[in-house]
Structure to design on (700 residues):
């Protein structure tokens, strides 16, 4: 009798363990419906393969996720996984809720090989604070037929780009579209020119600001010169405006993460007419470089079971068989952050990627030259948070383009603003 | 009888036409863009009429979003908030502007003072309050939050309407033996109908377009109201302008229908009998 009771207890206990399910709440900001559907497909497959884990996605939007996430942490209802970019990780880390994922990141690096541009912005203070998931890189996009008609080769240097923009400007067309707005888009585009001018690092090793340099001034002077061939309304552009201007033929060159989807869906042009090259650099420097956003995932739960489940899910996403499907929730925009991801068949077999393979390969190549302001030296300073949040780079752009300040004065002003913001 | 000045009359018509164009041009632009094909919608220079009419933006809107559930959420939040605001604001306004009690002006100033705070400043504290109340991810969280912003302004709006009702009417009702609630219900409220309609419409439209609280307090996609639900169709880096226009049309359409057809009877019904011949 006693043995039978013991047997029943053991069965119940084991059954209980088998049924104990770990719930993982995932917040991400990829809210267009087709992206949500693709993430759900991957979650469903993961949940089916791991009956002891239930991952649930809760979709947020980039516009207000920062206050929402901060509120959630303060109210102790934060998600277990939260997608991020490097600045956001820094903001969330200050709450104390972000768990280091160093061991997981090291293991994943050994298995898949993270790109430096992807992992470096999350690696500081001897830990890794988020697992890189997808990259975004800016390039110079152009219409091949328009350049060919004008007898212009795709520009590779600043001098060629300026000459091309001038030559392509006609009565009913502007040579290039670059933003002059106070926006993240303008922050990003000017930073491309800062990188290629040799001014990508804005912090000294001691955390002080080193923005007011001859290289930075040169980048802003060049931006000013180039902007005279950009449409007047580009002083208020964000990404969508640039894409619309490019797709409509109003401008034949823009600097953007991608134009492939818009070009494919909103124009009647053939894929072969879409050109893309790395961001041009000054001829005598030749430093190839471009802005690169490494999008990652933070783990915000301290509960060991949830943390283990969250890490298992993140590792699952980076498996080459799954990874391409994850990236292609927005094909030809989100790029692999791992070496084996760059080769993954699941990435290259998406119909849109197949159609625009040449362009996507250029984007992938550019990933290796990526940098992000405030995350270039291996040392990360909290001051980058307010500098990004206040769009100080594009405020300097506006002083040059709209207020008529000289690049020297505007950059000096920018240095003072950055020092004030980081105090 | 003075002859009408034809120049002045023509000037009035031109001015009226200008105002009509200014008011309706954005609606026309959104409406016509929603019927354009993707290449036409971004064509430069833009065309006034769709060169090729299409319904593909609307088909995409309904295929890619859960519009019916967003609409249901929006209607619930807007109607519940309107009902509560109208009730609270009417009672509060009557008490403040008609009854004598110490500190009533201070209370009024405090209430109006709450209106000067941008709602965005209260997001984080309100989020925590809603968590403690267990209202996060509940539509009631939005009703509660919205009422706190619409009610004070509505109380202030009611002032002019209440002051237009002579005190003598209440005194006459009192002489006839009417109690407080009878006076309020049978004498004051019927005369307040234009005011009630005003704050009802103000509240409904304010809540219909409210975004920050809705974005913060609701987590499930199925419970999202229209502004937040439809915001999802705008990618951060890529914008499908035709789809965006179709979303804007279907965001505004319920309100337009409500106030073009139902709203007219609503306002007429409320204002009937407000003035004596």
């Amino acid at each position: 009798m006693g043995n039978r009771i013991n047997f029943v207890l053991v069965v119940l206990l084991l059954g209980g363990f088998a049924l104990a399910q770990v719930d993982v709440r995932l917040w991400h900001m990829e809210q267009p419906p087709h992206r949500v559907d693709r993430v759900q497909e991957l979650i469903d497959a993961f949940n089916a393969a791991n009956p002891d884990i239930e991952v649930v996605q809760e979709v947020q939007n980039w516009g207000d996720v920062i206050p929402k996430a901060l509120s959630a942490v303060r109210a102790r209802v934060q998600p277990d996984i939260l997608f991020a970019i490097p600045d956001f990780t820094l903001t969330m880390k200050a709450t104390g809720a972000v768990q280091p994922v160093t061991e997981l990141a090291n293991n994943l690096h050994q298995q898949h090989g993270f790109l430096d541009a992807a992992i470096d912005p999350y690696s500081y203070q001897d830990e890794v604070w988020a697992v890189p998931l997808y990259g975004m890189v800016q390039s110079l996009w152009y219409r091949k037929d328009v350049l060919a008609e004008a007898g212009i080769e795709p520009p590779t240097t600043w001098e060629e780009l300026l000459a091309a923009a001038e030559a392509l400007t006609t009565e009913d067309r502007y040579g290039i579209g670059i933003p002059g707005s106070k926006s993240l888009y303008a922050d990003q585009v000017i930073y491309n020119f800062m990188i290629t001018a040799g001014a990508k690092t804005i912090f000294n090793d001691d955390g002080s600001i080193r923005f007011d340099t001859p290289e930075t001034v040169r980048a802003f002077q060049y931006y000013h010169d180039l902007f005279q061939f950009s449409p007047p309304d580009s002083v208020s552009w964000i990404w969508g405006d640039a894409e619309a201007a490019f797709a409509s033929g109003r401008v034949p060159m823009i600097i953007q993460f991608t134009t492939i989807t818009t070009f494919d869906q909103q124009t009647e042009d053939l894929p072969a007419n879409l050109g893309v090259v790395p961001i041009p650099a000054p001829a005598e420097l030749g430093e190839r470089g471009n802005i690169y956003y490494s999008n990652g995932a933070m783990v915000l739960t301290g509960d060991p079971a949830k943390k283990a489940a969250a890490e298992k899910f993140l590792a699952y996403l980076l498996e080459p068989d799954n990874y391409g499907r994850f990236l292609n929730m927005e094909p030809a925009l989100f790029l692999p952050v791992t070496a084996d991801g760059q080769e993954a068949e699941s990435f290259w077999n998406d119909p849109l990627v197949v159609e625009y393979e040449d362009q996507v390969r250029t984007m992938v190549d550019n990933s290796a030259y990526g940098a992000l302001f405030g995350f270039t030296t291996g040392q990360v300073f909290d001051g980058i948070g307010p500098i990004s949040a206040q769009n100080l780079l594009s405020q300097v752009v506006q002083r040059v383009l709209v207020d008529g300040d000289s690049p020297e004065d505007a950059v000096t002003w920018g240095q003072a603003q950055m020092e004030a913001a980081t105090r | 009888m003075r002859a009408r000045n034809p120049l002045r009359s023509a000037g009035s018509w031109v001015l009226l036409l200008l105002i009509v164009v200014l008011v309706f041009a954005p609606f026309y632009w959104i409406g016509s863009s929603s019927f354009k094909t993707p290449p036409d919608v971004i064509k430069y220079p833009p065309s006034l009429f769709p060169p090729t009419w299409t319904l593909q933006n609307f088909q995409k809107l309904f295929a890619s979003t859960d519009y019916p559930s967003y609409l249901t959420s929006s209607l619930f939040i807007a109607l519940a908030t309107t009902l509560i605001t109208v009730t609270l604001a009417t009672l509060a306004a009557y008490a403040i502007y008609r009854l004598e009690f110490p500190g009533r002006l201070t209370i009024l100033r405090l209430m109006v003072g709450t209106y000067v705070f941008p709602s965005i400043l209260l997001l984080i504290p309100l989020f925590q309050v809603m968590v403690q109340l267990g209202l996060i991810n509940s539509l009631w969280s939005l009703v509660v939050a919205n009422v706190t912003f619409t009610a004070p302004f509505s109380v202030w709006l009611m002032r002019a309407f209440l002051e237009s009702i002579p005190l003598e009417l209440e005194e006459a009702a009192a002489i006839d033996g009417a109690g407080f609630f009878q006076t309020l219900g049978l004498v004051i409220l019927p005369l307040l109908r234009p005011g009630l309609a005003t704050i009802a419409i103000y509240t409904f439209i304010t809540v219909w377009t409210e975004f920050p609280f809705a974005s913060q307090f609701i987590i499930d996609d199925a419970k999202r109201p229209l502004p937040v639900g439809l915001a999802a169709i705008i990618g951060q880096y890529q914008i499908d302008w035709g789809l965006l226009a179709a979303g804007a049309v279907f965001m505004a359409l319920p309100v337009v229908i409500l106030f073009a057809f139902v709203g007219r009877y609503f306002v007429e019904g409320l204002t009937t009998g407000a003035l004596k011949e």
